[in-house]
Every structure is written in structure tokens, then in C-alpha cells.
Amino acid sequence: MNYLNSMIATAALLCAVTLPSAATAHEGHDDKHAVAAASATTAELSEGEVKKVDKPAGKITIKHGPLRNLDMPGMTMVFKVKNPAMLDTVKVGDKINFVAEKVNGSLTLTQLEPSK
Question: Which burial class, exposed, middle or buried, applies to 60 when counting CB atoms under 10 A from its CB (0-12, 13-18, 19+)?
């Protein structure tokens, strides 16, 4: 075997030893997606009080406690709503539970329900 063939064989051997198999790499990839999907579907509800409903703009102002999923302290702020029909279910003064997420760079309510 000449020098070039020896170098190629050595490089191939090193790659085989140090790179994970396609199956192993794929398994880790699936696990990460499963965790992300699970956390997205089980977002914790936050508590708040409706301060303003702006149906034409598709926005709602809420005085809320901490939003753990967004790492935000409690405050009063305006949110877009994912579905404008959500605004028909609330009025100023209502106590609510909700999920806010960052959607296309905007804080958006993705879930809204009356507080029990």
C-alpha cells in the first residue's frame, strides 16, 4: 500500500471510530423534538385580569402574574390573540387563565379560559 492509500485508510478508520452512527444521531434528534413538542403542548397557564379588550386590533390588555414560560415578571401588558374569537369570551374585569407565547416575534395569547 502506498503512502496516499495508507493516509486514506487511516482517515476512514478515525471517522468510523469517532463519529456516532446515523441511528444514534437520529435517536437523540427525536428525543429533543419529543421534549420540545411536549413542553409546547403542556405550557403552564398564567393568571391574569382583563384590563382592556380591543376587538378591531385583535388585542387584549392583561394585568398578570409571572409568565414562567417567557421568563417575565408580573405586569400589565398588551397581547395579540391567536384567534380573534377569543376576545368574544371575555370582558374588562374578568379573571382569566391563559398561555402567552412568542409567535413571529409578537407576544400572543394562544390559550384563554375563565378563571375557576
Answer: buried
For residue 102, the cross-strand partners are: 107
DSSP string over 58-106:
TEEEEEE--BGGGTB-SEEEEEEESSGGGGGG--TT-EEEEEEEEETTE
Rounded to the nearest 5°, which phi and psi values hold at 57?
-90, -10
Helix runs in 19-69, H state only: 22-41
- Residue reference for cell 417575565: 72
> pLDDT (tens digit, 9 = 90+) per residue, 69-100?
999 999 999 999 999 999 999 999 999 999 99
3 grid coordinates:
503512502
**Which residues make beta-bridge pairs with 49?**
63, 95
Q: pTM above the 0.85 mark?
A: no
Neighbours of 81 (CB within 10 A): 22
Q: Are 110 and 76 in contact (CB under 8 A)?
A: no
